[in-house]
Design a protein that fits this description.
This protein is an alpha+beta fold and about 475 residues long. The chain has one domain (about 1-250, about 370-470). It has helices spanning about 50-60, 85-90, 95-100, 110-120, 125-130, 385, 390-395, 400-425, 445-460; strands at about 140-150, 180-190, 195-205, 210-215, 215-220, 225-230, 235-240, 245-250, 255-260, 265-270, 275-280, 285-290, 300-310, 330-335, 340-345, 360. Strands 1-2-3-4-7-8-11-12-13-14-15-16 form a twelve-stranded antiparallel sheet, with helices on both faces. It has a four-stranded antiparallel sheet with strand order 5-6-9-10, with no helix packed on it. α7 (about 390-395) runs antiparallel to α8. The longest helix is centred in the C-terminal third of the chain and has 24 residues, at about 400-425. The chain starts with about 50 loop residues before the first helix and ends in a 14-residue tail after the last helix. About 45% of the residues are buried.
Length: about 475
């Protein structure tokens, strides 16, 4: 579903919108940037949503026809932005308890359903909130945090009291954590500036589960909406169940749209097909998000199928209707902003009695779980909250002109550092991840990255200054 974009300090389109993206590796060329006249707003006066929207739309209109406005460089005035760094705002752990429960079921089908439950709860900010525009990330900027939650989510298949024939790997040998607190640690770093890419890593040692991936997006404005797609390095979310013989799941991001410009009320819709695959169990999910209805009425409907492949890595099926009934284990249907259900077998969902439909997730009562961030005294200068603190404080104080000036100073420093590296023919190296990008879409932690994650697990926020800053 929505994919996060951790972009460079030069702003691109609405970030809180979306899914993933598509940018091609830079070849030294940059997309021409239309000139933008910055609208000043009186300090102490908060712009209303309609004013923000008009200003934002006037900027977007200058990018009609631009292939990828995510690769364009332009600076948005501070009054159009939310006072939060992009690396902090954007993650896939709005409900971390669903993430840690992915591997709990003894059945491959149960674990796949666990992945889907996580999938439909990871972006609650789009279900209950409005799209917003955080600060774009600067090169070398990073964010780390942790969640402490209770391991209390039941299996999607209900009570599992006996071994089943589908079981493919042994149950974890460690003691149960059910009903006990567990920690989920997270780190993300802006690894590339052109194209803008960030790497992230999630780990819960208590449950033997981790996840990683790259965030990168491509965006195009049509005149009425912004289309956001996954970038070439954004291959989706990769989840690994370490206590189940490293069983891995890949979840790809669908295309999303930011609409509502003409009506003055921004909203996110999804209209695409995405996939969840597991090579070890050869299970695959095809999820199809339906387009808007007539007259632009948002449906937010999703339907899908879970089926068994002979070899999931060679399976090229892209449409639900092309999956043979004999291979289907169950169907998914519902509204991703409301309730999503699962039914066993190949029968059409509408023909299955309501009493036989399994509620996979109801997002109505769910809200994002607060994260635990490092204390101010343990944050480095390039750590997101501290790096953007001056801008954040000015926006909160409604000093928008001061916020815009401070934001532009940070952007200019990043350009200066980039020019210095270019003059020295020096290539930027990420600190916490081994490469700026990986062709397979799976970033790997460096030794410093592993140490930072271990510190989070141990409750030790201390971390050494980097050898070099990318934007300071």
């Amino acid at each position: 579903m929505l994919g996060k974009d951790k972009k460079s300090s030069s702003e691109s389109p609405p970030n809180g919108t979306a899914m993933s993206t598509q940018s091609t590796p830079t070849s030294g060329k940059t997309t021409p940037t239309p000139s933008i006249k910055e609208e000043k707003i009186q300090d102490g006066k908060v712009p209303d949503d309609s004013s923000k929207l008009r200003t934002f739309l006037s900027i977007l209109k200058r990018f009609i026809g631009v292939t990828d406005i995510a690769a364009a460089r332009f600076s948005l005035p501070a009054q159009l932005m939310e006072p939060i760094p992009n690396l902090e705002y954007w993650h896939y752990l709005d409900r971390p308890e669903t993430f840690v429960a992915i591997g709990d079921s003894e059945e491959p089908l149960g674990r796949m359903l666990g992945c889907l439950r996580f999938w439909f709860t990871k972006d609650l900010k789009y279900v209950h909130g409005k799209p917003c525009k955080p600060y774009n990330s600067t090169l070398g900027e990073f964010f780390r945090c942790q969640w402490e939650i209770e391991d209390s989510v039941p299996s999607p298949l209900g009570e599992e009291t006996k071994a089943v024939s589908q079981q493919t790997v042994a149950a974890p040998a460690t003691g149960s954590t059910k009903g006990k607190p567990v920690k989920v640690s997270y780190i993300t770093e802006q690894t590339s500036h052109h194209p803008p890419v960030s790497a992230y890593y999630v780990d819960c040692p208590d449950k033997g589960i981790s996840a990683c991936g790259y965030d990168q997006l491509s965006a195009k404005f049509s005149g009425t909406s912004v289309k956001v797609t996954a970038g070439v390095y954004n291959k989706g979310i990769f989840v690994t169940l370490h206590q189940r013989d490293n069983e891995e799941y890949q979840m790809t991001h669908p295309t999303a749209y930011l609409g509502g410009f003409l009506r003055g009320n921004l909203y996110v819709t999804v209209a695409d097909t995405c996939y969840v695959t597991c090579p070890k169990t050869n299970l695959k999910v095809i999820l199809h998000y339906l387009e808007e209805g007539y007259f632009g009425k948002t449906q937010n409907k999703v339907e899908g199928v879970i089926y068994k492949c002979a070899d999931v890595e060679k399976d090229n099926t892209t449409r639900i209707k092309d999956v043979p009934d004999k291979d289907i284990l169950g169907r998914i249907e519902g509204v991703w902003t409301d309730r999503v259900y699962f039914t066993y077998g190949s029968a059409d969902f509408k023909k299955v009695p309501e009493k036989d439909r399994v509620l996979l997730v109801d997002v109505n009562p769910l809200r994002p779980v607060p994260k635990i961030c490092p204390p101010d005294e343990h944050q480095l200068p390039n750590e997101s909250q501290r790096f953007w603190n001056g801008v954040t404080e000015s926006i909160k104080a409604k000093q928008f002109n001061a916020a815009t000036s401070k934001k532009q100073e940070l952007e200019e420093r990043q350009r200066e550092r980039a020019a210095e590296r270019k003059a020295q023919q020096k290539e930027w190296q990420p600190r916490f991840f081994t490469q700026a990008t990986e062709t397979g879409g799976k970033p790997h932690l460096t030794e410093e990255g592993k140490a930072a994650m271990q510190g989070l697990h141990d409750g030790d926020w201390r971390i050494e200054l980097p050898a070099e800053f990318g934007a300071i």
